[in-house]
Amino acid sequence: MALAAAVGAKVMSKKAKKLAGIDRRSENRWRIRYVKDGKRHTETVTGSQEDAIARRDVIRADIARNAWTAPAATTLAEWAATWAEQYLKRAVSTRSYDRQKSILDRHIVPALGKISLQKLTPVRINELYRQLEADGLHASTIRYVHVVLGSCFKAAARIGAVARNPVANASPPKATTQSGGRALTQAELDKLLRAFDGDPLFPIVALAAGTGARINELLAVEWSAVNWSAKTLRIEAALKPTREGLQRGVPKTERSRRTIRLDDGLAALLEAERERQEEEQRAIRCMGSVATLRSLLPDHALVFPASAVDPAAPRRHGPISKAFAARAGKIGLAGLRFHDLRHTHATLLLQAGVPVAAVSARLGHANAAVTLGIYSHATTDAEAAAATAAGLLLANVLGAS
């Protein structure tokens, strides 16, 4: 056994000598040796022999291009803390900061925090992704880890803390096919709306189904965003939870700022809701509870406020979602979420032949490609209708089928 081990070590040594500037430390660990400005440097790579060779060649190329940076003592944990406080916090919303900071603290720093910035390699990052997969994390979460870590290193590269971003060459899990969620048929939607008719939630349920707006967008809509003559609804904000409580913030994307045209039914529904709230304010004023109201409903009053006493007080979506799911379950639509009204809206419009670009603009998607990616299944009926219409163009010559 000892003789075999010695022979194996000798063979390993001979193989290592064939790799200029690389020593094999163990089965999957390699030490890269190089010289810059008369100083000797080493770097350890975990992975295959090909990974070590690739890293060695990158180092040599960087030295040749004067793009090489000496390994620093700063660890990823130290830089991540600096990046989060000095860069991330100033660049994103409070909610986004909290989410990205959570990704750092829960998944990145515990696994990679002790490694210096210069020594973190794509191979080691890929090992983290595989471990997170083994731990049961969803592919979308791991891809978000990839995004956060990439942003962290981009900032380090901008200030010269690292020569290149190792995350750029890492390979997170492939994104799973996006799903819009559950979409009701027209008959199911009719059944749902009848079940809510007369319920205090009916206006917001109907508006969600008729516009495709997200619930946090609807809860941020002020009466001033309704154009009664043009019959439009302007989406320009979204409610977001912060440490200080609910606040009106910017929508999900820039395209989320949009104007949605209302049909006569929805416009009448909103008008009736406005009149109901004005009557409510008259009753409150008569009781003397709100002595400082300058008008029955100021322009900044919310369409769906948390309190009649303060029409500008934002309302939490949790109780609405819970009550919605409970009522849907009672009529045989168990598991239906409030957000599924958005998917129902998009699916039924696409199946009715409404152009994808129009549906995309109505939903506030970044572009039509996003809409197609989520709702490609909903275009089947529309494509069949298009084929039938196309056949009619040639019917006089080919004959109608």
Describe what this molecule looks like in 3D:
This protein is mainly alpha-helical and 401 residues long. Helix content is 52%, strand content 10%. It contains 16 helices and eight strands. The strands form three sheets. Strands 1-2-3 form a three-stranded antiparallel sheet. A three-stranded antiparallel sheet has the order 4-5-8, with no helix packed on it. The protein is elongated, with a radius of gyration of 30 Å. It starts with a helix and ends with a helix. Residues 1-17 and 289-294 have low confidence and may be disordered.
Short summary:
The chain has 16 helices and eight strands. The chain has helices spanning 2-17, 49-64, 76-91, 94-112, 122-134, 139-158, 186-196, 202-211, 215-218, 264-287, 317-330, 340-351, 356-363, 368-375, 380-393, 395-398, and strands at residues 22-26, 29-36, 39-46, 226-227, 232-235, 238-242, 245-249, 258-261.
* Overall SS class: mainly alpha
State the helicity in percent bands.
40-55%
The CATH class designation of the largest domain is: Mainly Alpha
Gyration radius, in Å: 30 Å
Q: Kindly, what is the distance between the CA atoms of the first and last residues, rounded to a whole number of angstroms?
A: 81 Å
Count of discrete alpha- or pi-helical segments spanning 4 or more residues? 16
Would you tell me which CATH topology of the largest domain applies? hpI Integrase, Chain A
Q: Which ranges are low-confidence, i.e. pLDDT below 50, for 5 or more consecutive residues?
A: 1-17, 289-294
Morphology: elongated
Give the strand tally. 8
Give the biggest beta sheet.
Answer: 3 strands, antiparallel
SSE pattern: HEEEHHHHHHHHEEEEEHHHHHHH
Instruction: Please identify which CATH superfamily of the largest domain we are dealing with.
Output: Intergrase catalytic core
CATH architecture of the largest domain: Orthogonal Bundle
Q: Numbering strands along the chain, what is their spatial order in the largest sheet?
A: 1-2-3
